[in-house]
Amino acid sequence: GPCGANSVERKIYIPLNKTAPCVRLLNATHQVGCQSSISGDTGVIHVVEKEEDLRWVLLDGPHPPYMVLLDGSLFNRKVLLQLKGTSRVSGLAVAKAKPSPPQGFSPGLKCPNDGFGVYSEDYGPQYAHCNTTVWNPVGSGLSYEDFDFPIFLLEDANETEVIKQCYQDHNVPREGSGPEYPLCAMQLFSHMHAVTSTVTCMRRSSIQSTFSLNPEVVCDPLLDYNVWSTLQPINSSGKVDPKKEVILVATRIDSHSFFWNIAPGAESAVSSFVTHLAAAEALHKAPGVQSLPRNVMFTFFQGETFDYIGSSRMVYDMEKDKFPLRLSNIHSFIELNQVALRNNSVLWMHTDPVSRKNESIQTQVENLLETLSNSSAGANVTLQDVGYSQPLPPSSFQRFLRAKHIPGVVLSDHRASFHNRYYQSMYDTLENIHVEYPEGLSPEETLEYVTDTAKSLAEVATVVARALYQLAGGANDTSAIQADPKTVSRMLYGFLIKMNNSWFQSIIKPDIKVILGKCDVPQHYVAVSSPVNTTYLVQYVLANLTGTVVNLTKEECLNPEKPPHTEKDLYEYAWVQGSLDPNSTSRVPFCVRSTVRLSKALSPAFELRQWGSTEYSTWTESRWKDIRARIFLVASKELEMITLAVGIVILVFSLLATYFINAKADVLFSIPRDPGAVAY
Amino acid sequence: LCLSCRAFFWLVSLLLSSLIWFIAVKASDPHDEPLQKGLLIFGVMFSVLLQEAFRFLYYKLLRKAIEGLVALSEDGCSPISIQQMAYVAGVGFGLMSGAFSMINLLADALGPGTVGIYGDSQLYFLTSAFMTMVLIFLHTFWGILFFHGCENRRWWEIAAVVVMHLAVSASSFCNPVYVGSLVPSYVLMAVAATWAYLLSGGSAQNVRRFLLCKS
């Protein structure tokens, strides 16, 4: 009602607060995800814990449609397609499986980002569409199916227990016959406004925005910002000298899962960008890097999960001269992809066999591979070359290759298929990369504790930093370049367990500290409002690790146009809030000077308004108004009919009685003889 | 002199009594269960007394109005008798209290769920409807009784109305044992109906003649 939860409403409904919906995403040709009716979908709850329970839902149950409460272990393609094909199911609630399913679970595609990489009918057709190697064999493609009923994830085990208790009390079939009313039911609201495809929804949105005073936009493109920074400062408003060569290091910082804003991405994203950040820190600390012949650019791409939004945009900007660098400036390319699950400390180097057919590229690639192998001497990392038999795994490097043949290598822990059995799923958490802490530690102690995973990632970062030093033309001994496992540990804590920790709080701007307020697990979904927390934090962590503290006041720091700044385009200045004084509640803020910048990561398809493009990513997310879930009891039709009938009978009877009493009023009421009462 | 004025008076009494209850609840400890229950009982009783007080105020207002009407009329007779006033007053009171009881229930009954997930009875809506009906009737009859008592200075009639009102409200604390609240309320309604009928000029003879369809 309009007054919110009044007491009758509280008697009827139990709201489910800790849920995550499955929302609708659209691309140039299809819609994927889930949809509910505009006033929610209701159904009688049935708990499915083993496959035999499905029979009741699909065939035997006498009270369709059913709302299925599915155990996490049964959340696979076979069961979902069975539920999709019947009209007896009005919705699905999935309870997260604890522990994660041992056989693996991935709702992503078997061949991620197929068709948007470099391999196609014109370029290496034998490698296109995963003909040679299936990268994600566990992939079921569930995230890319279209469901016409709502699917929610129940994150809180207590709420799942409440629902199961309600089911046990009211819905369990007794002695073969159906259960009796009242029955426990659930209602899920997740009505999505966009339909069909990006072409349709963007057309409708643009018509609304152009002609309506109060536009009803139905979908938004997925967009965010890429974070990039250079070792030696470059003029961000000008162009870099064409003769200056730059080595590009790249990682992705986003992930995805079947449910909205659930994207822990530990192995698929966090492991790689944390290693990248540690390598950047190690390289900046090395002596003499500012005078190296080649520059190094550290790039963190957003939106790579959705057909390479960030990298395709950066390539487009470089081609159209909207970026300080051009493609011709790039000397070589190193990408870090999923590096946490190494077998026997082996790190594999993937290269593109098609471009290596060219002599000069082949020489440069071999040089690159050799430099990397040399850098691993002394570290607990063995670098091995995958060879010519395999194409590149899905990586941002493929988008750069589409534009220009650049020598490059993709480093990963897997030789052929992913070692990650939970690629782009809700189970890709810290347990997946074996991050373990001893019992009984406080949050501060957990922040500082160095795990084995952190040590292993720090080794990889050391190798990468040393290789970059040599590739950039450094001649000195590289044994002094070491990545710090403590930093890696703190970053793993911050990006996998809790963003609101003391280190992150000390390195961000004072006015955005509210984004760290949430207590739950950090998620790395690209989303439609930007920048997301992950982008902000990568930006500030990179600034802290690679920048310098300068002695400026707050006004000088925040106003780079005024003196004493002399080279305002070379650097970015940020006023960060600093760490908490011990035994005090105030912070000591300071100014950080770094070369960290953001560049827009919106697919060129939306800039060019080619919403049906097959060349650039066209992923959009639908808009919605109301997403919630609740459970309650439903009454039988008989009781409802009886209530209505009783009411109608009483109404008719009262009308008749009033008529007769009125007609015979003079019979029923005689005027009293008492003179004093009535009139004066 | 209309239904809505009466309804307005009931609303004002409800507002004042709910204000008192709200202040009392906020000023007390929300976790003390017996205290909260006690406060609820106190609130209900206070509300009943306040409603009856407002009924009395309305009576006073109507007396003044009748004198005015008589002064304005041509033949010195009032166009509306005090019994008609009493009846209308009672109906207005009843309708407003019924509306307040039922509207929010009906709004929630529109949704897909019914009461019961926390263990309440499934017949909640039906019994609420019957309780509301009996309260509306009771208010109508009490209006007649109360005004008659005020007119003829029979204080025991006024006292009986207040006692009956308190009894019906108190019986609602028996819920969800609906037998405990509905049965006494209907019995009291029958008593009040008979009494009001007799006061309005009816008799057993008239009823027999009515039922046998004689003129």
What is the topology?
The complex is a heterodimer of chains A (680) and B (215).
Chain A (H helix, E strand, L loop, with lengths): L6 H6 L1 E3 L2 E3 L3 E2 L4 E4 L6 E8 L4 H8 L5 E6 L5 H8 L4 E7 L50 E2 L3 E4 L2 H14 L12 E10 L5 H14 L7 E3 L1 E8 L15 E7 L13 H20 L9 E7 L7 H11 L10 E7 L9 E5 L8 H17 L6 E4 L11 H7 L4 E5 L30 H6 L3 H20 L13 H12 L5 H6 L25 H14 L1 E3 L3 H5 L13 E5 L13 E5 L2 E6 L1 H4 L12 E3 L1 E11 L2 H27 L1 H4 L12
Helix pairs in contact in A: 6-11, 6-12, 6-14, 7-9, 8-11, 11-12
Chain B lengths: L2 H24 L6 H40 L9 H28 L14 H28 L3 H17 L6 H22 L4 H8 L4
Subcellular location (chain B): Membrane
Subunit structure (chain B): Component of the gamma-secretase complex.
Membrane topology (chain B): Multi-pass membrane protein
Could you tell me the mean pLDDT of chain B? 84
What is the strand content of chain A?
Answer: 15-25%
Largest interface by Cβ-Cβ < 8 Å: A-B, 37 and 39 residues
Overall morphology of chain B: globular
C-alpha end-to-end distance of chain A: 51 Å
Cα(first) to Cα(last) distance of chain B is 33 Å
Could you give the count of β-strands of chain B? 0
Provide structural commentary.
The complex is a heterodimer of chains A (680) and B (215). Chain A is an alpha/beta fold. Chain A folds into two domains: 13-105 and 140-192 and 627-638, Glucose Oxidase, domain 1, CATH 3.50.30; 223-547 and 595-602, Aminopeptidase, CATH 3.40.630. Helix content of chain A is 30%, strand content 19%. In chain A, the strands form four sheets. An eight-stranded mixed sheet of chain A has the order 1-24-10-5-6-7-9-2. Chain A has an eight-stranded mixed sheet with strand order 17-16-18-15-13-14-12-22, sandwiched between helices. In chain A, strands 8-4-3-23-11 form a five-stranded mixed sheet, covered by helices on one side. In chain A, strand 6, helix 3 (77-84) and strand 7 (89-95) form a beta-alpha-beta unit. In chain A, helix 11 (452-471) packs across helix 12 (485-496). Chain A starts with 6 loop residues before the first helix and ends in a 12-residue tail after the last helix. Chain B is mostly helical and 215 residues long. Chain B has one domain (1-203). The model of chain B has no long low-confidence stretch (mean pLDDT 84). In chain B, helix 3 (82-109) packs antiparallel against helix 4. Chain B has seven helices and no strands. Classes of the chains: A alpha/beta (680), B mainly alpha (215). Chain A binds chain B through residues 1, 3, 6, 8-9, 11-14, 42, 166, 182, 184-185, 187, 630-635, 639, 643, 646-647, 650, 664, 667-672, 677-680, and chain B through 67, 70, 76-78, 81-83, 104-105, 107-108, 111-118, 120, 122, 124-126, 129, 133, 151-152, 200-203, 206-207, 209-210, 214-215.
